[in-house]
Amino acid sequence: MTDQAIAAKAAPPPNLYVARVESVRHYTDRLFSFTCERPAGLRFRSGEFVMIGLMSGERPLLRAYSIASPAWDDRLAFYSIKAPDGPLTSRLQNIQSGDEILIGRKPTGTLVLDALTPGKRLFLLSTGTGIAPFASLIREPETYARYDQVILTHTCRFAPELDYGREIVAEAAADPLVGEEAAAKLRHITSLTRQSHELEGRITALIGDGALFSALGGPVFDPASDRIMICGSAPMLHDLKAIALELGFTEGSNHEPGSFVVERAFAS
Ligand code: A2P
Predict the structure, then answer these.
(1) Ligand 1 atom 19, closest CA
(2) What is the residue-wise DSSP string for 134-182?
(3) Atom in ligand 1 nearest the alpha carbon of residue 155
(4) Concatenated DSSP letters of 56-124
(5) Nearest-CA neighbor of 93 among 127, 129, 45, 69?
(6) What is the mean pLDDT of residues 23-49?
(7) Which atom of ligand 1 is nearest to the CA of 194?
(8) Which residues 6+ apart lie within 8 Å of 184 measured at CB?
(9) Which of 164, 200, 233, 240 to mutate to test the pocket of ligand 1 (most atoms within 8 A of CB)?
(10) What is the DSSP code (8-state) at residue 193?
(11) Is the Cβ–Cβ distance between 43 and 33 less than 8 Å?
């Protein structure tokens, strides 16, 4: 870039960091992940989300994204859909290593361990890109310190959409910090809704008919000892939240921990 071009480039506002993209991986024509360097001052708790984006003319174009890497990592990871008409994702899907992206200075969110009261089994229920915050939490040592079992469920429409989840589970198992505990405590249950698979159907249906617990070989939900985190589309959250409340779970927040927490998978 020439000196003139650099000078002409609009400067990002001071409430944003600029970070360099390190790697990009495309899974399907609708899904990709990328990593970038972690700004030195960025603090967050595993499971939180942050605003990220690109400059659009003079202005930043930002969307909320769950951070898919754990709080201790010196790299940030994200998992995104590619929406052809999405103002941000239509551009973000073309980023390459070496490009710059904008990152907000204030990560936040409710899918954090502190928003849950102590329990024995932790269920991380996700659909689609809603698995992203759980990619962070399954590499967080505190997750395994607090729970005897960690059950990650991922439901998608078609088989290739499960690849990212398989990869992050394999990464957790190979991670020197949490690998041993992940191998002993982490279960990964996948289901598909529009293609044949070992386990078929929406997570709501699998809870309703008990297929989730049969697949696990464990007891059905018990609000006394199970804790649940939920992340997916708005209709998925709505339906799962209703089920959790019906079963006697109480919704937690940063101010008042409970037995389940929910967060929308943002990118659209
Ligand atoms: P389905 O194929 O039956 O719609 P999406 O890409 O639309 O977010 O969907 C991701 C996954 O979430 C799909 O398997 C989809 O199932 C499922 N899903 C969609 N709506 C709900 C809901 N209200 N409750 C549970 N799962 C849902």
Answers:
(1) 236
(2) HHHHTT-HHHHHH-SEEEEEEEESSGGGGHHHHHHHHHHHH-TTTHHHH
(3) 14
(4) ETTEEEEEEEE--S-TT-SEEEEEEE--TT-TTHHHHTT--TT-EEEEES--B-S-SGGGB---SEEEE
(5) 129
(6) 97
(7) 2
(8) none
(9) 233
(10) S
(11) no
Asked whether residue 266 carries a pLDDT value surpassing 80, the answer given is no
Decide if pLDDT at 142 tops 90. yes
CA of 220 to the centre of ligand 1 (A): 22
| The length of the chain, given as a count of residues | 268
Nearest C-alpha to atom 5 of ligand 1 is from which residue? 128
Taking the C-alpha atoms of residue 118 and residue 227, their distance in angstroms, rounded to an integer, is 8
Residues with Cβ within 6 A of ligand 1?
127-128, 155-157, 193-194, 202-204, 232-233, 235-236, 239
In order of 100, 206, 249, 254, the CA distances from 64 in angstroms are 17, 29, 27, 18
Model pLDDT for residues 194-211, shown as the tens digit of each residue: 999 999 999 999 999 999
- Whether 252 contacts 259, CB under 8 Å: yes
Name the residue of 157, 206, 212 whose CB sits within 8 Å of the most ligand 1 atoms, as the mutation to test its pocket.
Answer: 157
